[in-house]
Design brief:
Distance between the termini: 88 Å
Structural class: alpha+beta
Strand content: 15-25%
Number of domains: 2
Helix content: 55-70%
Shape: rod-shaped
Order of helices and strands: HHHHHEEEHEEH
Radius of gyration: 47 Å
Length: 223
């Protein structure tokens, strides 16, 4: 190898050249220095471009992974419902049957006199004396109508308890509440007077129930 070639690869000479570089005159820099500087700039540009590109791809990947997780959860939920569809249908049929059974326990308007007769027989059978039994004003609710019956009877605590138990055992739905018990003012036998409200119910098949049902049906149809 020639002496000029050895000088071209003299590291010490290269370092001395770097130390003597004029930052205001790039054109006067030695070729090896220019090549090293160009290589450094190239590497920096490549690294920055790589990280910027990878960062964007990473964010996109994270977004797709979240979407995949949401879709997987939705799929699992729908698959579970589909696998248990027959069971849900059986439960729906059972609830419809239970609802029909409850409706059968609600008296129709034509059955109210018979219900009053049952309450009267229950009270007499419990040893009570009826002072009055009056129908109140029917109250329309969402899907049913409530008819209060104001009852005033005379008797003792044992007879009152027997009467309440007998009414609860009737085949029709009847609830008792808002009662007061006090001594009978003009009674010389020591009997007590009980005033109690019995509520009986019927299915509201009129306009109000139809309107409620229509609104619910409309909401279901828009889904």
């Amino acid at each position: 190898m020639s002496e000029n070639a050895k000088k071209g690869f003299d590291f010490q000479e290269l370092m001395e050249s770097v130390q003597n570089l004029d930052p205001n005159n790039y054109g006067s820099w030695p070729m090896p220095v220019k090549l090293v500087l160009a290589a450094i700039v190239f590497v920096v540009v490549i690294v920055l471009g790589y990280f910027l590109s990878v960062t964007g791809d990473y964010n996109t990947l994270a977004t797709h992974e979240r979407k995949e997780s949401e879709l997987l959860s939705d799929f699992e939920s729908k698959a579970f419902k589909a696998a248990n569809l027959d069971q849900y249908r059986a439960q729906l049929t059972e609830m419809e049957n239970m609802f029909g059974s409850l409706l059968d326990q609600l008296p129709k308007k034509t059955e109210v006199p018979g219900l009053l007769e049952d309450i009267t027989h229950t009270g007499l059978g419990s040893g009570l004396e009826f002072d009055s039994i009056e129908l109140g004003t029917e109250v329309e609710e969402e899907f049913y109508a409530r008819l209060p019956i104001e009852i005033t009877v005379l008797g003792d605590y044992h007879a009152f308890g027997s009467f309440v138990g007998g009414v609860a055992a009737l085949p029709r739905i009847v609830t008792l509440g808002d009662f007061t018990i006090a001594p009978k003012r003009d009674a010389v036998t020591g009997l007590l007077e009980m005033t109690i409200t019995a509520n009986t119910y019927r299915y509201a098949s009129g306009k109000k129930a139809a309107d409620k049902g229509g609104k619910r049906g409309g909401k279901g149809g828009r889904k």
